[in-house]
Structures are given as structure tokens and as C-alpha cells.
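pasting Histone acetyltransferase type B catalytic subunit for the record, 409 residues
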Amino acid sequence: MSDNSPITSITAASLQPELWTSSSNDALQIYITDSDGTALNFHPNFTYPIFGDSEQIFGYRDLVIFLCFDHCTFYPFLNVKYSDKLNDDTLEDPREKLLSYLPESTIFKDEVKWVDSINKEKEGFEIPGELVGNIFTHGDDKFGIYKLDLKNAQGLELHKRLQILVLLFIEAGSYIDHQDELWDIYVMYKVTDEKTPSIIGFCTAYNYWKYGGFEKFDSNQQEVRKKISQFIVLPMYQGLKLGGRFYNKLYEYWMQDPRVIEVVVEDPSESFDDLRDRCDLTRLCQNTIKVASVDLPLINTEWATKLRQEQKLEKRQFSRLLEMILIYQLEHNLTNITKKQVRLFIKKRLYEKNKEILDGLDEPTRLDKLQTAYASLESDYKRILSGLSLHKRALDSTEGSSKKSKPNV
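structre below
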């Protein structure tokens, strides 16, 4: 295939437009080189932010778009190949489209120049960020999380190289304003080979300032809500429980920061919700409370409020965790509370959450809606709890994933 192929008349194409239409999701092939020089290949989940809602590219036959990154520096390379192209000046150029979302350092077509540029950057390479916490092991490898310094040229350049993954793997994802100093960017590396570490994924989080009262304001005591906006683990590292380790290590770091009073998540996907629930449940039950000690009379007391604040959990997430613990108790015969009591307790929260809508319904319909909502939630809780051994202080049981966000993660 070649991008210097013959140009075909638009009239011929109008007879068979399907031959000249490519799925941009299929055409775009992403490669990331491994530490041994091999390239791992995968396709994006989304391309509509770049190529439009239809996720189609018209005017080319046998279109293949190669978007390649080095595992260590994430130096980008782009090439576009096709067997034939229509003679139509209005056609969108996929090369120009993609280059508008990539940093200026991106090399087009010249693979030798790309390899030389990577090798030059790797000379005396240092991760452009500050280590968060400690280096940790997972299996036979070592990993570290680094907070990028966006005022540093290398840190900013790495951010620009990574950010296109937000568009390709997070639904409704968008670029963050890197000039806004309230953004934090954390990159997870495999550092088994310290000279050439491999990027595993990254997370962005926004720091919302919270007014804590005049006394704290006068004494310059800052309080922030840390909002996770974007969370990506590269596809070849998903399913290895590295996403859970990434999230847990970030949470440990924020737990130790007295300025952070709450950790929240912006518009999570179902897969990230699952990861978060399992991580939060495991951390709560391993380090803080005994599962069997959670009782209905305790949940609406000062004990629960204090626990939530200590764990820096938002109210909705904390309520969900307690409800899951109650369901877990029933499943493992760890409580004297009846299933009916738990059901009524959860239904009460569901009613209060949707009170305005439910009050407009007649009683039979309202009760039916509540029962349907409860049954769906109970089923989802049991799915999340499946495989967790909370009362046995089990090890972390989470999976890697990506999180959706808007506007961005």
C-alpha cells in the first residue's frame, strides 16, 4: 500500500461509495513499542472527537493510519497509507486531522528519523516528574507513580504526547487546560529497568478549593476536594490489576495530604466505578472497620460521619459502600439484620434521592418503581462483591480500566 497511489475520479466512486468509506476506528492502528523493541497493537474505542460522529473517513481505499509511540518517551510517529484516493479537493486529510491533535514533535512517515529522535531522548533519560510515595512491586516488576511538572518543558511535552489517548479511550473526553495550575497529572511507570521505564497509564485530577470557615481562611489553612477526571491504563496492561494498584497508591498519597478533605470522581464509566468500588471497599474493610461491626443503627450516627470524613469519601460513595457491606453481611451470614430491614433501608435512600419524581406517581406505581430500582441495585452490588473476601482481610481484588469523563479526564 502507498499514499502515493493513483487518484480516481469522484464519478466512479459515487456508484459504490461503500468501497471508499472506512471506519476510522478500524483504520486507526495504535502501536506502542515494548522495552524489547517489539510493537504492541490495538485500536481506539472512539474516534468521533477527531473524525466526527459517524466515525467514518470517505475518499480512500484500503486506508490504514499508523499512530505509534515509544514505551518510554512516548515520542509520536504518524503515517497514512491507502491503495487509492478520490480526486476531490473537499476530502478530509486524515493526516492533517490527526496532526492537529498531536504535539509539534510528531514525526510523519520518516521512521528512521523517529527512531533516531527516540534514541537521542533516551540518552540520560529521567522521568519528568516527582515520585509520589514509594516504588512498589507487582508480580516480578517494580512500578512508580510520578506527578508531572507542567512548568518543566519535558513534563509539558509528555502531557501533550499522552493527551490524545483521552479522546481515543474516554467517552466524551477532552483536553485539559494545562495552563490551569489546579490540574495535577500523574503518570504510572514500570521501572524495573530504571534506564528505560515504560509508561503504564496516567490520571488527571483537579483541585477544587473548599472554604472551610473563617478561622481556617484567616490562618491560611487550604482545603481542597481532589476530583479524578481522567484515568487511563494502556490496553496491554489492563486485566493485570495495575489499575487498582494505581488508584490505591494515589488514594494513599491523598490520604496523607492534610489539605485534601475529599476525593471524588467526575462522571466515571461503569468499569471505573467497579474498580473504585472494589478498591474503596477493600481499603475500608482491611484497614478501618470490621465488616461484621457495621450495623443499621450506626449508619446514621456521628460514627458514620466521622468515618466518612476520615476516609475522605464523598457522601454518595460512602452510602453505597455501607449498603454493599450490608448486602455482603447477608450473603455471608455475618449479621442478625434481616434482608427486609436492609431492603427498606436502601429503598429509603432511593426514595429520598428521587422524591420529587416519585411523589408525582400513584402509590402502586411508586412502590413498583422503588422495588425495580432496588432489585437492580442489589444485583449490581452482588456483582461488584463477587470474588471479594472482605471479612477475611483479602488482598486487593481489582482490575485495570479506563474512566470516562467530561469535560476533561
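The mean pLDDT is 90.
The chain has three domains: 19-122, 127-267, 269-390.
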